[in-house]
Amino acid sequence: METIYKTADRLWSSFVNWLKEEKNHARFIVVCFVISLIPLLVLSFYNHPAMDDFNYGILTRHALLENKGLAVIPAVLKAAVQRAVNLWHSWQGTYTFAIVAALRPSIITERITFIQTFILIGLFTGCIMYFCRVMLHRLLGLSKAVATVTACVVITLCIQYVPIGVEAFYWWNGSVGYTGFFSVMLAFFGLLADSLHREKISAKRMIGLILLTVLLAGGMYPIALLTAVMLFFFAVDVLAGKKYGKKMKIQAAALFLIYIPAFALSLAAPGNARRQAFFQHRTPFEAIYKSYTKSLEYMYTEAMNVVIVLVIFALFLYMLWKLGNTKFSFRCPLLFTFVTYSMVVVMWVPGIYAVRYISGGRYYDILYYGVILFWAANAVYYAGWLRRQCEKCGDEILGLLKKAVPAMLAAAGIGCAVLGIWKIDIVTDLEEITTATALKSLVYGEAQVYDREIREREALYNDPDVKRVVVDEVTYRPELLYYGTLTTDPEDSRNLAMCEYYDKEYMVKRETEEESNETSQE
Q: Which of 62, 68, 433, 446 is the most buried (most CB within 10 A)?
């Protein structure tokens, strides 16, 4: 027993010493982060297309089946563009989103649907990593390790407490339009911030920025509007700044001028007017006011829990420790808070304006990401501001503060422990974590049964000799995988879309006894 104790003590001491190095604690955090993603990625192997995946993929699937060899590529691309044109006229002007949605990887075969989750999580992780690297390493001068740790903390909070996980990383059509485009938007903002830091835009970067400008202009309106606002202020900053050269001023103005018609093309779609006929929109000023009030309520109720509070506070203390050598001034913290909060509010405006409320879990997902980024940014900024205030106090007071740091950290630790014990509901809070939800579906076998039953359906769907399909309801509805299947109504738009997608005459779900009783009562 003594030998085991000594060995464990030696290993623990070695681990603690190894962890003291900045690069090593970043590596440790990254390993923990990757481990937390494993259940989510494993669950993706049981995922299947659903809902608008079929509607948006009708033309691209038929183009794929009707062409062979290299002719498939232009045919599928043309079909994706045609789908965007059709939807632009009939439903919504978000043309680049429609193209990306139509190019769903699993139009090739449903068996590779898992790739979509890998793409979405990889894109989300990579873009936030890059954004944090630019903001913390290049602009503030912190080490790459600190930027990596901060990014892992932010990404973990975003993923693990995302409001509707199925619409964030599993349902392609909803996920790529919101979480996917949100990720690209952050990378785009990172490129703009890095360009300001470098005081120049290379030819290659300019081409990339133009492509991303057009891509985001045709994306979902919350993201497109925030991009428009950021591009406007980017152009104003460059044009007014004396340190930027004439070439960069022209480039900044060109990006904004390219964005205006690209965004206008999305707004001018006839489909928007047809869709808007179902709703009574607000005035612009009313929409802005309501967005500020509703977003504030959301921030402190649905988008907040004790775990998020503790983690953001820990990030504040971490930055208080790491921001000692940065030369950034961190002036006007209240103004910074207002500006960053307003950036979150901008994403609320399209929904509040058009339909008077936020519709769809995927919309709430990006609003939640915005809240987490807001808290993280302010934790960093206020930690830096506090460091600057302490430095102004003089060496003697600064020395006293440094001596008091252990006591302050101990008090903060005790406070966090008390708050955690008092407020954390172990069962409820664990169930809210996305990884725990994925593990539950895997361990209880819900995902496996769901996958087997949907595969049996897909065998019928892909059988050219079967023209009339009737299926039973699935046994389980895994929270992260299930997003609707066939309904009992043969004229339901979802059923009709699947009929067209799979070239069937009739597709319907068999009505259960419970559903039959409900229908008869109505």
A: 446
